[in-house]
Amino acid sequence: MNILPPNFVTNLKCIICGKEYPHGNIFTCSQCGDQGILDVKYDFDSAGSNLKSQTSNRPFDHWRYLELLPISPSLHPPFLYIGWTPVYDVPRLARHVGVRKLFLKDDGRNPSNSFKDRASSVGVLKAIEFGFKEIACASTGNAASSLACLSAATGLNSYIFVPERAPEPKITQLLIFGATVFRVKGTYEQAFDLSKQSCDQFGWYNRNSGTNPFLVEGKKTAGLEIAEQMKDHLPDWVVVSVGDGCTIGGIGKGLQEMKLLGFIDHVPRLLGVQAEGAKPIFDAFSSGQDLIPTDTNTIADSIAVGTPRNWRRAIQQIRLSHGEMVAVSDEEILEAMRVTARLSGVFGEPAGVAGVAGLRKAIEQNIVKSNETALVVITGNGLKDIQSAKQAAGKENIIKPTLDAVAEVLEKQLKQ
Ligand SMILES: *Cc1c(COP(=O)(O)O)cnc(C)c1O
Q: How confident is the model at residue 3 (pLDDT cuts 50, 70, 90)?
């Protein structure tokens, strides 16, 4: 990619009151406060015609949609391969779950093994554009390891705040990518507040994705890709696990933009999936009331968010697509982890496969019909959380080095 096309951003607009702001280093609406998340707006006529004339020459990664990203022409995207993750047709899993056709889009194949690389890759470019050499975030896991990874690729210093209970594999990723890691003796909320204060105090760029308007644009690329990859056989449903709400909000936005530009003629219905132990967005969606923060208790750590920041955008996008939401138990998530791996060969972390559990539940509840088709976004790789994977998988056979011992195990297996 030599010459980048011009930037097509027109302005930023508050998702609550609609107040508009020029494209710059701002986060939330001055009138609506922290809840007033800003949405990036584009000149769709120019962006669309430019994009249509260019896509056939572009590499298959998520920068192929540059016109629909808030990226300046002078910036060079990180060289790591991000996006255009594969979509698999998985008939055995489809039969097990009970739909006519099922597709998995495996976002565990991104550089740091989660969907978050789509957002972090835009975040590091915005930090560079705004003149920062340091970037920070608070995260329970994937946003952090992703930011550490993309910072390593682009030469930024990263400062990561994690709560005391963060999973070890994700901490290990942070350390190997060279991040300065602050393991805060306290809750996620305390780590979040401390990271924000530190950004102000030490002059770091803030990647906290709930409120940074540019990060959701990176997440949007999965929606753009689904439209292009599935153009001729769009699924009836696109299924996404929901924590803060940025992922489903971004995917919905991407699909809507591809409809606006005429790439697809309708938008699939979104099915948002939360864990029963952390379902404030599900509750707000069901009641039609404002969100009430909750405690969290689920093995799906990546969607264990009690105070989601982007819930309005999530619900807006789900409603716009005539979508639905469901909540699933930890047992159902563990079952989904096991059957997804065994009936498709795709290994996802608990939040990564929660969509498969949610699809199953939506069929039980007659929300999704057995003659319909669905695509589940697998948002993170299973090795991110070995403890849960082992819980789902059962035990290995420890044997003496003899053929008899092998035969004994096989016999036992036959009887089961
Ligand atoms: C972050 C994350 C999600 C949910 O994304 P939100 O924007 O928080 O809703 C789902 N799955 C995985 C693996 C994640 O890391």
A: very low
Q: What's the 153 CA to ligand 1 centre distance in angstroms?
A: 22
Pick the CATH number of 87-113+215-393 from 3.40.50.1100, 3.10.560.10, 3.60.15.10, 3.30.450.20: 3.40.50.1100
**Residue 322: both structure tokens together:** 């005539």
Q: Whose CA is closest to atom 14 on ligand 1?
A: 302
Cβ-based neighbour number of residue 326 at 10 Å = 26
Q: Is the CB of 123 under 6 A from ligand 1?
A: no
Instruction: Tell me the three-class secondary structure of 250-284, residue by residue.
Output: HHHHHHHHHHHCCCCCCCCEEEEEEECCECHHHHH
The reply to whether ligand 1 has any atom less than 6 angstroms from the CB of 62 is no
Question: Which protein residue has the closest C-alpha to ligand 1 atom 1?
Answer: 302
Name which residue leads in pLDDT, 285 or 168.
Answer: 285
Ligand 1: nearest atom to the Cα of 244: 8
Q: pTM for the whole thing?
A: 0.95
